[in-house]
Amino acid sequence: MNGSLDTSSKVETIRLKRGPAGLGFNIVGGLDQQYVYNDSGIYVSKIKEDGAAGQDGRLQEGDKILSINGAVLEGRTHKAVVDLFRTAGEEVELHIQKKESHHMNGSTGSESEHQSPASILGLLAVLTGAAAILFYIYRRRA
Fold first, then answer.
1. How far is 54 from 60, CA to CA, in rounded Å?
2. Phi, psi (5° rounding) for residue 4?
3. Which of 38, 54, 72, 96 is most buried, with most CB under 10 Å away?
4. How far apart are CA 131 and CA 142, in angstroms?
5. What positions does the domain PDZ occupy (predicted)?
C-alpha cells in the first residue's frame, strides 16, 4: 500500500461559519509538503476547541480535506490551499474523508480491538504471575 487513505473511507460534507478566530483548525500537507507518503492531500493537524470546527465537533484531527467550496485540494501546494482558505468567505463547505480508525494493512476493526504482541505478552506474564501466587497460597494452606 502506498500510505494514502483507503478510498472506502467515509466522506462527509461539513459547513462551517467562520468565527472571530477563523475556522479554528490547522492543516498540513500539499503537493510540496506531503504529510502522508505518496499523497499530496491536505490533512487536519489541530482543532482549536473554541474555534468554529471545535464547537461544531465533526471535523477531527487526521481527517483529509478533499475540497473547500467545491475547489478540489488534491495536487495543490500547501500555500495555495492556505490562500484558498483565507479567501473562502464567511461560510465554507468542506468535503472531508474521515480518518481511518483501523490499520492500513487490511484490518477492518478499530485500533482498540488490536493489541501489539508486546502488550499481549505483558498481559500473559501478569496472568501467569497471578496464577503462580494463587497456587503458592493454595499449597501453603494445604
1. 8
2. -80, 165
3. 96
4. 17
5. 13-100
Helix (H, G, I), strand (E, B) or coil at 51: coil
Helix (H) or strand (E) holding 132: helix 117-141
Residue owning grid cell 497460597: 137
Q: What is the mean pLDDT of residues 31-45?
A: 90
Question: 32 near 52, Cβ under 8 Å?
Answer: no
Rounded CA separation 31/77 (Å): 5
Beta strands in 62-137 (DSSP E): 64-68, 71-72, 91-97
Q: What CA–CA distances, in Å, run from 96 to 10, 99, 104, 120?
A: 8, 9, 18, 35
Rg (the chain; Cα; Å): 23
Predicted confidence (pLDDT) per residue in 96-136, tens digit:
999 875 444 443 443 444 445 666 777 778 888 888 888 88
Cβ atoms 44, 59 nearer than 8 A: yes
